[in-house]
Amino acid sequence: MASFRIRGGRPLEGRVAVQGSKNSALAILTAAALAVDGETTLENVPQYTDVLDLCQILRDLGAEVVWRAPGTLTVRGEGVSKSEAPYDLAKKLRGSTYIVGLLLARLGEARVAVPGGCNIGTRPIDFHLKGFRTLGAEVEVEHGQILARAQRLRGQKFFVDRSSVGTTINMMITASLAEGTTVLENAALEPEIVDLANFLGKLGVKVRGAGTPNIRIEGARRLTGQRHEIIPDRVVAGTYLMAGAITGGRVEVQQVIPEHLRTVGLKLSEAGAEIVEKEDSMGICSPRRLRGVDVQTGPHPGFATDLQQPFLTLMTLAEGVSVIQETVHDNRFGFVNELQRMGTNIRVDRDTAIVRGVEALTGAPVEAAELRGGVSLVLAGLAARGTTLVQGTHFIDRGYSNLEQTLQELGADIQRVE
Ligand code: EPZ
Q: Is 94's C-beta closer than 6 angstroms to any atom of ligand 1?
């Protein structure tokens, strides 16, 4: 198993160009296979392993998915003819639930493994299944697979429980080829939803209201492939800003949409960092020690849950106490056990972590068990005295490409070792 070996204590300095959003790419790649005419060209597609796995699933179903250059992918959906996704690949990623929506819309039938994804809580799929049923599908879960079948999908009104991001995406994909209009209430507001809506609009689906809680999707009969550029990955951008902050450095993330990072920027400012926002970049300049601030995660535009763990890690070295409440996922503090090996002072009580900042962390062997918790251990290692070994790089590769190279370019001493 590969590890990152980090010798901490160097302030990071420099600029990082951020790739496209993983979560947007997973939705848009799937949606691209809705089109039976022409070819879709996607730009700014990140080469994270989750995205590569989804490409492989789509190929297995009969789509033509080809990398034309780093970041540029073409998709032809015409050949999609198989209704069963490869079990071992589909079960690995949460985004494979979108394949159910795609296959229902395209073939009226789907067999897809119940997804796994990150180890951050129970992560049920009941809202998705309810959504498919509302549009007219019969759905069962049997022998580890979601089995869905629909003679005809019909647009309906649907209330999205907990403003679920994935359910909103899945309903948009499924409704794109349904008869009539689907109205989503309490839809997710995340930028990835707006990106998907813009893409579907180009393919020929009429989508109104994306970015508000009420989205209307008028199903189309046939869609045609188009060109689209995926929005930047706000979580990766936020991670690099926090890497700058935790090392008392100065980092600029480029090719980002600063509005998508506003809440994070405000919290970093509140903690004492200087944030400089430009048209398509955001910079941070951090003092040696930040102040502890409180954070509660929430759906967009609230503080993104995917940045809660890096922020908590930052707070382990801040002056004073910070209270971090996780309201989206039910177990996103598992990585705290590993952080404790490095000398942090954190108490977790159900959905809340109380972090008492310490003067310094010390390097230790630690183990990543999921994506964002894993990258947070890397951040802790960058700031710690001595050497940290983070095992489980494959979890981190799901959502960051060439993490070590990017951090090296910023001046970190980090290597991938077997
Ligand atoms: C998406 O997950 C992202 N994943 C997650 O990113 C992100 O943390 C999350 O949205 C929230 O922003 C992808 O886009 C692939 P939800 P998703 O449905 O869609 C509960 C990362 O680090 N729920 O908005 O699965 C659920 O358990 C990841 O990149 C049900 O109970 O999130 C959670 O508590 C991890 N039943 C809440 O709703 C369901 O059927 C919101 O989840 C669906 C969700």
A: yes
Whole-model pTM: value is: 0.98
- Write down all domains in the chain, each with its CATH number in brackets: 3-18+232-417 (3.65.10.10), 22-229 (3.65.10.10)
- Closest ligand 1 atom to residue 120 Cα is 35
Query: What pLDDT digit, counting tens, does each position of 3-24 carry?
Result: 999 999 999 999 999 999 999 9
Q: How far is the CA of 358 from the centre of ligand 1 (A)?
A: 32
> 21, 23, 371: which to mutate for ligand 1, most atoms within 8 A of CB?
23
Q: How far is the CA of 116 from the centre of ligand 1 (A)?
A: 12
HEC per residue, the chain: CCEEEEECCCCCEEEEECCECHHHHHHHHHHHCCCCECCEEEECCCCCHHHHHHHHHHHHHCCEEEEEECCEEEEECCCCCCCECCHHHHCCCHHHHHHHHHHHHHHCEEEEECCCCCCCCCCCCHHHHHHHHHCCCEEEEECCEEEEECCCCECCEEECHHHCHHHHHHHHHHHCCCECEEEEECCCCCHHHHHHHHHHHHHCCEEECECECCEEEECCCCCECCEEECCECHHHHHHHHHHHHHCCCEEEEECCCHHHHHHHHHHHHHCCCEEEECCCEEEEECCCCCECCCEEECCCCCECHHHHHHHHHHHCCCECEEEEECCCCCCCCCCHHHHHCCCCEEEEECCEEEEECCCCCECCEEECCCHHHHHHHHHHHHHCECEEEEECHHHHCCCCCCHHHHHHHCCCEEEEEC
CA of 331 relative to ligand 1 center, distance in Å = 12
Q: What is the pLDDT of residues 191-225, one digit of tens each?
A: 999 999 999 999 999 999 999 999 999 999 999 99
Q: Which residues are catalytic?
A: 118
